[in-house]
């Protein structure tokens, strides 16, 4: 009985039989052994085919009977070689399918482990508590935003006063200051000696100087009051 027949008729180890069938690793190892055996048989047949072809050429028409016998053997070897090629293709397909099945099994097993780990992680998690926690976080974020907005808002002290009334009062104060400045202006006394040339011009010049000083003072006071009003608003 050939190795292939023993393999398919239960040529596995006793340990494999006791477990109810070979493991994927054992089956893959057997398939690789079979592929190696058939590959060696291919090499042998290819060598015999070349040898029989050489014999047929050697005898040729000199010994036609021997040449024909060599060609017949060559045909039988070629037929066996073709059968082995088909068998190798079948075994290669089966090995690849088994490798893919084994890979899928390992992938599913690892995915199962991952699912169990996720389940264990989520055991102590309560969805209701998570919803309450997220709601508390949202509420606290809203409170923090309101506090930030309140701190960054511009202070509005003094907005309860009427700005028109303040400006009217400011104009009255400026007018009082102007009147006071005009009262402080003293006209020069009439000189006892002879007046210098152009007396009217000198007196007018002095009055103009006093008026300019009072106007300048009023402008400065007005600038100060505007700055005060701008700060208050």
Automatic annotation (TrEMBL):
<comment type="similarity">
    <text>Belongs to the SNF7 family.</text>
</comment>
<dbReference type="GO" id="GO:0009898">
    <property type="term" value="C:cytoplasmic side of plasma membrane"/>
</dbReference>
<keyword id="KW-0967">Endosome</keyword>
<dbReference type="GO" id="GO:0015031">
    <property type="term" value="P:protein transport"/>
</dbReference>
<keyword id="KW-0963">Cytoplasm</keyword>
<dbReference type="Pfam" id="PF03357">
    <property type="entry name" value="Snf7"/>
</dbReference>
<keyword id="KW-0472">Membrane</keyword>
<dbReference type="InterPro" id="IPR005024">
    <property type="entry name" value="Snf7_fam"/>
</dbReference>
<dbReference type="GO" id="GO:0005829">
    <property type="term" value="C:cytosol"/>
</dbReference>
<dbReference type="GO" id="GO:0032511">
    <property type="term" value="P:late endosome to vacuole transport via multivesicular body sorting pathway"/>
</dbReference>
<keyword id="KW-0175">Coiled coil</keyword>
<keyword id="KW-0653">Protein transport</keyword>
<feature type="region of interest" description="Disordered">
    <location>
        <begin position="1"/>
        <end position="25"/>
    </location>
</feature>
<dbReference type="GO" id="GO:0006900">
    <property type="term" value="P:vesicle budding from membrane"/>
</dbReference>
<dbReference type="GO" id="GO:0005771">
    <property type="term" value="C:multivesicular body"/>
</dbReference>
<feature type="compositionally biased region" description="Gly residues">
    <location>
        <begin position="9"/>
        <end position="21"/>
    </location>
</feature>
<protein>
    <submittedName>
        <fullName>CHM4C protein</fullName>
    </submittedName>
</protein>
<dbReference type="GO" id="GO:0031902">
    <property type="term" value="C:late endosome membrane"/>
</dbReference>
<dbReference type="GO" id="GO:0000815">
    <property type="term" value="C:ESCRT III complex"/>
</dbReference>
<keyword id="KW-0813">Transport</keyword>
């Amino acid at each position: 009985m050939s190795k292939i027949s023993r393999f398919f008729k239960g040529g596995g180890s006793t340990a494999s039989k006791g477990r109810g069938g070979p493991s994927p690793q054992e089956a893959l190892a057997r398939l690789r052994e079979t592929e190696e055996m058939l590959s060696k048989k291919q090499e042998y047949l290819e060598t015999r085919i070349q040898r029989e072809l050489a014999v047929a050429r050697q005898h040729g028409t000199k010994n036609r009977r021997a040449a024909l016998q060599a060609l017949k053997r060559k045909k039988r070897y070629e037929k066996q070689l073709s059968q082995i090629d088909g068998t190798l293709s079948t075994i290669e397909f089966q090995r690849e399918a088994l490798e893919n099945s084994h890979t899928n099994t390992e992938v599913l097993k690892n995915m199962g482990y991952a699912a169990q780990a996720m389940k264990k992680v989520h055991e102590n998690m309560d969805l209701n508590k998570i919803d309450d926690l997220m709601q508390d976080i949202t509420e606290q974020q809203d409170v923090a935003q309101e506090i930030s907005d309140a701190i960054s808002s511009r202070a509005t002290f003094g907005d309860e006063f009427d700005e028109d009334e303040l400006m009217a009062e400011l104009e009255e104060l400026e007018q009082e200051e102007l009147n006071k400045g005009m009262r402080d202006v003293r006209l020069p006394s009439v000189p006892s000696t002879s007046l210098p040339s152009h007396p009217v011009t000198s007196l007018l010049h002095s009055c103009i100087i006093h008026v300019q000083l009072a106007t300048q003072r009023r402008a400065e006071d007005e600038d100060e009051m505007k700055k005060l009003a701008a700060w208050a608003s």
